[in-house]
Design goal:
Mean pLDDT: 94
Number of helices: 14
Largest sheet: 7 strands, mixed
Helix content: 25-40%
Bound molecules: flavin-adenine dinucleotide
CATH topology of the domain at 2-52 and 66-83 and 220-293 and 398-445: FAD/NAD(P)-binding domain
Distance between the termini: 40 Å
Structural class: alpha/beta
Radius of gyration: 23 Å
Low-confidence stretches: none
Shape: globular
CATH superfamily of the domain at 2-52 and 66-83 and 220-293 and 398-445: FAD/NAD(P)-binding domain
């Protein structure tokens, strides 16, 4: 083992690691970025089929104007080579393709005629089934609480373990509901569980703009992964990339959280500071901290290329339909700025035995759904198919928010050299995450944050 002193060591070359490296390099810092995979990017990376069509790891765009800092940061990193557009979304409910945030008159007749809107009723996060029945009619409330929720294996998992249905409804409402005044505006201080107050306000404003509108940014070329690549190119002035580090071993004092060394590939790095930018459960394992009890959760991704366009003019379609094992379909060709998309990608999050099924089984299940819904013709076969199964942490009935807060407190309160620019128990939005990471890295350096 060869000892190597380094000023800074970053673990994880996803978006958080890349923002960290770029920020450090801009302050003249030097060091090494250690990544387990052969390629950087993490969930923000991209890959191409053999025709040169790009796919991301699930639909990825950056909300434009949601954070002025992020908009400026992304524009600067991509040297202005950024595409701006309004996201066109659809919903699938009971086999019908419906425009996102459409008012009831724009819903298909078969559904519309069974909804009973009460102009005086209001519902919000945590409202009961009875309150939803008063606002949208009994039939639609039961559809949402029974069928739509059943489309999400993770919600069924929680329900079977006694989590109240009103608490789980926040995954369905307001996304799959006709837009109406029944949706109460977010209250200040309303703790929305999985969603922050900022997120609720942002999506409420997008849905209730006239017309409903969400503006996003995307790299002009190279898929979404180009963003992380460009950040790493900026960071390379100061940082060496150590890829394929599958075997890192950390020597850390459990009291002070002082990292004495990080070893991988025959090198023992002796770091001045360590920036943890890999998943929190991995860090907990090194520290011997107990993770909340739960079951592994998986993101399944099916990426297809067809001879003919498949997009229907939409960038993404969200699903709440238990007949289809799909959470979202996105259309990479349109997202990348093409006039149509020969590619589509299915995203599905699940738990338990279903997650262990193989690529062929998922290919067949998804093709059945795509044909039934008319996205592809009955006889059409894909010319490319790629299957990925990616860990998404655990589902747990324990309070993950409290666990996260406890980890943050222990790390930020410790006297050691470990810095955590962003710890998470669930995906967060990059528009929020970029300024937060940038700010925390600057604070760790003792410089005055330039913005966040
Ligand atoms: C399907 C999907 C779609 C999303 N869409 C959007 C979107 O449209 N807009 C948006 O704003 N946000 C979106 N998000 C959220 C956002 O991408 C993430 O919250 C965030 O960017 C995660 O970045 P990260 O760097 O923390 O994590 P990751 O990308 O997971 O990076 C962590 C890195 O650490 C590495 N690593 C792990 N273990 C080790 C180890 N032991 N040693 C060294 N390295 C290790 C991993 O290989 C990886 O490269 C989406 C998330 C998902 C899952």
């Amino acid at each position: 083992m060869r000892d190597k002193p380094v000023e800074n060591l970053i673990v994880g070359a996803g978006l958080v690691g890349a923002v960290t490296a770029r920020t450090l390099a801009r302050h003249g810092q030097r060091g090494v970025l250690v990544e387990r995979n052969a390629d950087p990017g993490g969930v923000n990376g991209s890959f191409a089929d053999d025709r040169g069509n790009w796919f991301d790891h699930g639909r990825h765009v950056i909300s434009d104007g949601r954070s002025a800092f992020t908009t400026e940061f992304v524009t600067e990193v991509l040297r202005g080579r950024v595409r701006r557009f309004d996201l066109k979304r659809g919903l699938v409910v009971r086999g019908h393709l419906i425009p996102y945030a459409a008012e009831l008159p724009d819903w298909p007749e078969a559904l519309r005629e069974r909804v009973r809107l009460d102009p005086g009723a209001r519902v919000g996060l945590g409202s009961s089934r009875e309150a939803f029945a008063r606002a949208y009619g009994r039939w639609f409330a039961d559809l949402a609480f029974d069928e739509m929720m059943a489309a999400y294996p993770v919600l069924t998992w929680h329900r079977e373990r006694g989590v109240p249905e009103a608490h789980l409804m926040r995954w369905i409402f307001p996304w799959f509901f006709p837009r109406s005044e029944a949706e109460a505006p977010p209250d200040a201080g309303d703790r929305a569980g999985v969603y922050s107050e900022e997120s609720r306000r942002y999506h409420y404003d997008c849905r209730h703009a006239n017309p409903p509108r969400e503006s996003v940014m995307y790299p002009e070329e190279g898929g979404f992964g180009r963003l992380v690549e460009a950040m790493l190119e900026d960071g390379r002035e100061g940082f060496d990339l150590h890829l394929g580090a599958e075997d890192i071993d950390i020597d850390i004092d459990p009291e002070s959280l002082a990292v004495r060394s990080v070893s991988t590939g025959g090198i023992r790095y002796r770091p001045g500071r360590v920036f943890w930018c890999a998943p929190l459960p991995v860090l907990c394992r090194y520290l011997g901290w107990t993770l909340p009890a739960g079951e592994p959760q998986w993101e399944l991704l099916g990426s297809f290329t067809f001879e003919r366009p498949v997009d229907r003019g939409l960038h993404e379609v969200l699903f709440a339909d238990p007949d289809h094992p799909v959470r979202r379909i996105n259309f990479p060709g349109l997202i990348a700025g093409g006039s149509d998309s020969h590619t589509l990608q299915v995203e599905y999050t699940t738990v338990g035995d279903e997650a262990r099924l193989g690529a062929d089984e998922w290919r067949s299940r998804w093709l059945t759904s795509l044909r039934k819904l008319g996205f592809v013709d009955a006889g059409a076969e894909p010319v490319f198919f790629d299957f990925k199964r990616v860990s998404r942490g655990v589902v747990s009935t324990e309070d993950l928010g409290a666990f996260l807060a406890g980890c943050e407190e222990r790390i930020h309160g410790a006297s050691g050299n470990l810095v955590a620019p962003h710890l998470a128990v669930a995906s967060d939005n990059n528009a929020r995450l970029i300024p937060k990471v940038h700010g925390r890295v600057e604070r760790a350096l003792g410089t005055r944050p330039s913005a966040s």
